[in-house]
Amino acid sequence: MANTRDVAVGVVGGGPAGLLLSYLLNLQGVETLVLEARSRAHVEQRVRAGVCEHPTVELLRGIGVGARMDAQGMMHHGFSLRFDGRDHRIPLTELTGKCTTVYGQQEVVKDLVHAHEEKGLPIEFEVADVALHDLDSERPRITYTDAGGVRRELRCLAVAGCDGAHGVSRATLAATRPRVYTHDYPYAWLAVLARTPPVHGELIYANHERGFVLHSIRSHEVTQLYLQIDPREEVTDWPDDRVWEECRLRLTAEGFGLREGPLLEKSIAPMRSVVVEPMQYGRLFLAGDAAHIVPPTGAKGMNLAVADVRRLAYALRRLVRHSDPRPVTRYSESCLERVWQVQHFSALMTGLLHRDPAADDFARKLQLARLHNLTTSRAAATSLAEHYVGLPFD
Ligand code: RFL
Ligand code: PHB
C-alpha cells in the first residue's frame, strides 16, 4: 500500500497514557507515532482527573515535564472525611511523608503535547477508522485514515493500546477472549464545575444519608463538585438550584458555608470497575483505561495509567533496542498486582462513602463504624493514606 511507513511502536490514543508512553520511549531512543481520534484542542480541554499522586508527580518532574505542574499545581497535605456533620482529617504528609498534587489531567495532557512539539515528536490528531492487524506476528500493522482523509498504514514492532475504555484496542483484544472482570455500582456521579472559590483548602469527601458529595478544587476561583446520583438520572434532572440545594444539605457542617456561583459544566460519570486479563495479546499491549477502569472515588485512574506505561516503556525498550522479549512477555503479569491493589482501594473508598440504595440500617451503622475506625486508628489511617498518596513504583 502507498502511504506506508515504519515506526518502532504505534501508539493508539493520545490521552495521558499514550502521550506519556510515547514521550518515555523517545527519551530512551525508541521511535513512536501517536494516533489520536480527537483534535488537539479537544484533548487539551477535556476536564477529568484532578489528583496526581506522589509517584506520578515525581515521574513527570523526573522526565522534565513538571515545570508548570510545580508552578501551578497545589500540594495537598491532607483531606477530610466528613461524616456525622463534622470533618475528620487524614493528615497525609504526617502519616506518610508524602502529599498529592491537585493539577488537572488536561494540564498534564497539555504539558505532554507541548513536550512532543518541542522535541519534534509526531502526534497525528483527528485520525479515523483505526484498525489493528497481524498482532500475532512480529510485524503488526495499524491502518487508519488521517485528518486529510488519506488512508495510511503503519508497520511496527509493537502496538500500544492507550485508547481508553471505548477504543479499538480493547475491542480488538476482546476478540481473543481475555478474562474480563466487571462490577457496576448502583449509583453514578454528577460532575459539576462551578465558578466559585473553594470554601475549604483541602478536599472533602462527605458521607451523608442523602448520598455522597465530594468538594474538590480546580483553582482559587473554580470549585469541582461531585454528587452521588441515581444512575438512571440525566443532566437535565439536575437544574442549578437542585445542585446547590443538594450540595448544601450533604455538606452541612458547623462553620461551613458554601458560596454559590455559576455552573460552568455538568456531566455524568458512571461508577464501574473493569479489569481485562491479560492486558496483552501477541504484540498488542493495553495500558490505562483501555485495560482497566476504577470508580473515580479513589482518584486513581490516570495515576494507574502512569504506572502501566512506566512498565510498558521499559519492556518495549528491551524489545526494540535489545531484542529481548522477556519483559514484554511478563508485562501484564507485572502490572496486575498494582491494578488489583488500586481496584481494592477504589472499591474501599467508594463503599465507605456512598449511600447504597439497597443497604439496610445495619449496613449503614457498619459503614459509620468503619469510618470512625479509619479516623481514630493511626494504623488504619496510615494504610488509607499510603494508598491515597500512591504506592511506590516497584
Ligand atoms: P483516556 O484519557 O480515555 O485517553 C484515551 C484517548 O484515546 C482516544 N481514542 C482513540 N484514538 C485513536 N483511535 C481510536 N479508535 C480511539 N478511541 C479513543 C481518546 O480520544 C482519548 O484521547 O485514557 P488514558 O490515557 O488511559 O487515561 C485514563 C484517564 O483519563 C482516567 O483514568 C482518569 O480521568 C480517571 N479519573 C481520575 N484519575 C486520577 O488519577 N485522578 C483523579 O483525580 C481522577 N478523577 C477520573 C476522575 C475520571 C472521571 N471520570 C470522567 C470517569 C474524575 C472523573 C469524574
Ligand atoms: C477531582 O478533583 O476531579 C477529583 C478529586 C478527588 C477524587 C476524584 C476526582 O477522588
TrEMBL record:
Domain of life: Bacteria
Family annotation (InterPro entries): FAD-bd, FAD/NAD-bd_sf, RIFMO-like
Chain ranges of the FAD-binding domain: 6-345
Signal peptide: none
Alphabetical UniProt keywords: FAD, Flavoprotein
Key word Secreted present: no
GO molecular function: FAD binding; oxidoreductase activity, acting on paired donors, with incorporation or reduction of molecular oxygen, NAD(P)H as one donor, and incorporation of one atom of oxygen
Keyword Flavoprotein: yes
PANTHER family cross-referenced by the UniProt entry: P-HYDROXYBENZOATE HYDROXYLASE (PTHR43004:SF3), TRK SYSTEM POTASSIUM UPTAKE PROTEIN (PTHR43004)
Protein name, as recorded: 2-polyprenyl-6-methoxyphenol hydroxylase-like oxidoreductase
